[in-house]
Write a structure and sequence with these properties.
This protein is of the alpha+beta class and 366 residues long. 19% of the residues lie in helices and 44% in strands. The chain folds into three domains: 111 residues, DNA Polymerase III, Chain A, domain 2; 119 residues, DNA Polymerase III, Chain A, domain 2 (Roll); 114 residues, Roll (DNA Polymerase III, Chain A, domain 2), CATH 3.10.150. The protein has seven helices and 27 strands. The strands form four sheets. Strands 6-2-3-4-18-17-16-10-14 form a nine-stranded antiparallel β-sheet. It has a nine-stranded antiparallel β-sheet with strand order 15-11-12-13-27-26-25-19-23. It has a five-stranded antiparallel β-sheet with strand order 5-1-7-8-9. A hairpin with a 5-residue loop joins β21 and β22. It is elongated and about 75 Å long.
Length: 366
């Protein structure tokens, strides 16, 4: 194999594909990045659960394929000077040259690299910005505990032009509804996709239109020359919609950016995982934290309250995760009592909010 390729293009593609490489591969070849040169250059990574492929333009003098340690290649290409990169295979070595820099990398046996899963049939498409926004809003509510795989995923329900995403770790629920362009108006799909994979896909594909594919226990996503497949989780999930449907007796509207800033400031005197206390009264919200060995902090904000005065407490980071998903100027906190869950929504006038974040309160706000 002998190719020449733009340094920035190569470094970007290598970094994108290498993100799925396992830190502890079950077999050595899974740590490799497969480079295949034909009409263009394709880079592939696979860990049996997630695959990634990126295609880039390259000047191919001699077609061929080579398997190179992926993380090392990512570090090298990121550090190369701004010049054209040449890669040539010589026996068991891949020689990478860029300007005055040269690296000889020991290759791995291409024939041992597993066959990547085929991309399933496309079922629709969505703008990368909307897709990234939805994933970013719901993913923080997914659990990081792999002992309950169902809680580590994002539930995706597709019904015609409507898509609903949701995630939960049992203490909170993040949900977002949006529309997309289905291949068929009667498409109906319900799947569970690992949240960590969805986050990476959303970050890397937010710049273009994302084609979504489903079939045979695999989900596929493709945009601007990049393709990812991921093995689906078990479809079992809670009935989260029932938990988000409630006639809240207390509603408070607050500017979201000042509220986030206030929580971060007063949390400086709070011990890790202790409560942020929110005291709502007519026209005012008092944000408080601390009071132990470190000290205490308090800050007041304007708010519009409908219903009775209330004091309620939340775990600070979980509260911030929900507020970070709000894309309107004001956030609405829907409450029922100090020991009951509260729901964060955007303030959208008469329209139903597309984003909802249900959060357990701490039972001792004082």
């Amino acid at each position: 194999m002998k190719i020449r390729v733009n340094r920035d293009v190569l470094a970007d593609a290598v970094a994108w594909a290498a993100r799925v490489l396992p830190s502890r591969p079950v077999v050595p070849v899974l740590a490799g990045l497969l480079l295949e040169a034909g009409e263009d250059l394709t880079l592939s990574a696979f860990d049996y659960d997630v695959s990634a492929q990126a295609s880039v333009e390259a000047d191919v003098a001699e077609p061929g394929s080579v398997l190179i340690p992926g993380r090392l290649l990512a570090e090298i290409t990121r550090s190369l000077p701004a010049d054209t990169v040449e890669i040539v295979t010589e026996g068991a070595e891949a020689v990478l040259t860029c300007g005055s820099a040269e690296f000889g990398l020991i290759t791995m046996p291409v024939e041992d690299f597993p066959t990547l899963p085929q991309m399933p049939p496309a079922i629709g498409a969505i703008g990368g910005g909307v897709f990234a926004s939805a994933v970013t809003q719901v993913a923080p509510a997914a659990s990081r505990d792999d002992t309950l795989p169902m809680l580590t995923g994002i539930r995706v329900d597709i019904d015609g032009e409507g898509v609903a995403m949701a995630a939960t770790d049992r203490y909170r629920i993040g949900a977002r509804d949006f529309t997309w362009r289905p291949e068929s108006p009667d498409v109906a799909v319900s799947v569970m996709i690992p949240a960590r994979v969805m986050v990476e896909i959303a970050k890397s594909m937010r710049g273009g239109e994302v084609s979504v594919a489903m079939g045979d226990g695999v989900a596929g996503f493709e945009s601007i020359g990049r393709r990812t497949t991921v093995r689906l989780l078990d479809e079992q999930f809670i009935d989260y919609r029932a938990r988000l449907t409630h006639d809240w007796s207390i509603k408070a509207d607050v500017r979201v950016a000042p509220l986030i800033d206030a929580i971060k400031r007063v949390a400086l005197v709070a011990e890790r995982n202790t409560a942020i206390r929110l005291s709502f009264s007519q026209g005012q919200l008092l944000v408080q934290a601390g009071g132990g060995d470190i000290g205490r902090g308090a800050e007041s904000l304007e708010c519009e309250l409908r219903g009775d005065d209330i004091q309620i407490a939340f775990q600070s980071q979980w509260l911030l995760d929900g507020l970070a998903g709000v894309e309107t100027e004001f956030v609405r906190l829907n409450m029922e009592g100090p020991s009951r869950p509260a729901m964060i929504t955007e303030v959208t006038g008469d329209a139903d909010p597309a984003f909802r974040y249900l959060l357990m309160s701490l039972r001792r706000p004082a």
